[in-house]
Design a protein that fits this description.
This protein is an alpha+beta fold. Helix content is about 50%, strand content about 25%. The chain has two helices and five strands. A hairpin with a 2-residue loop joins strand 2 and strand 3. Helix 1 runs antiparallel to helix 2.
């Protein structure tokens, strides 16, 4: 009988592990910062719409191509048509449907459904997700330091002949 050869997996060098770790941490940091920024922006937009928003009747101009759960709406602002994007399940509306919307007069492309004004659940979700990802960065750094100290202690003990 032949023995199956065991494939040995070659370990990556410490430098390679460090580079991979830095790239992952940078990605986590960027994702966390962007999510946190979007969450804060969502709170600001909801506040602006709730306190100074102007009501209008918008027409659904597109139900695909603007993200997974968004539609595009066209509505009148000072006699001209403005387009904005609203977070709605595209299957719940049809192109050409009229919807009550609220827009920010200072930035007319910031728009929301009239029924959703004041709903900050998506802003909370993005803010919490961003905060969690940003907290992973110092936690990862701390765990890396602990692991490096353990490796150093083991190397010193091995050099001294201790097995403890």
């Amino acid at each position: 009988m032949r023995r199956a050869r065991m494939v040995r997996r070659r370990r990556l060098s410490r430098r390679t592990n460090t580079v991979i770790g830095i790239i992952l941490l940078a990605g986590i940091l960027i994702y966390g910062a962007v999510s946190l920024g979007l969450g804060v922006s969502g709170f600001v937009n909801e506040h602006e719409l709730a306190t100074g928003g102007v009501s209008a009747v918008g027409r659904v101009s597109a139900t695909s191509g603007y993200g997974k759960n968004t539609i595009q709406v066209t509505y009148p602002v000072d006699g001209r048509q403005v387009q904005g994007t609203i977070g709605v399940d595209p299957s719940s509306v049809y192109q050409g449907e009229l919807l009550d919307v609220v827009y920010d007069p200072g930035s007319p492309s910031v728009v929301s459904l009239a029924s959703d004004v004041g709903d900050t659940s998506s802003a909370w979700a993005e803010t919490i997700t961003g905060a969690i990802f940003l907290l992973l960065v110092p936690l990862s750094f701390l765990l890396a330091l602990i692991g490096r100290r353990r490796r150093r202690r083991r190397a010193i003990n091995a050099a001294l002949g201790d097995r403890a």
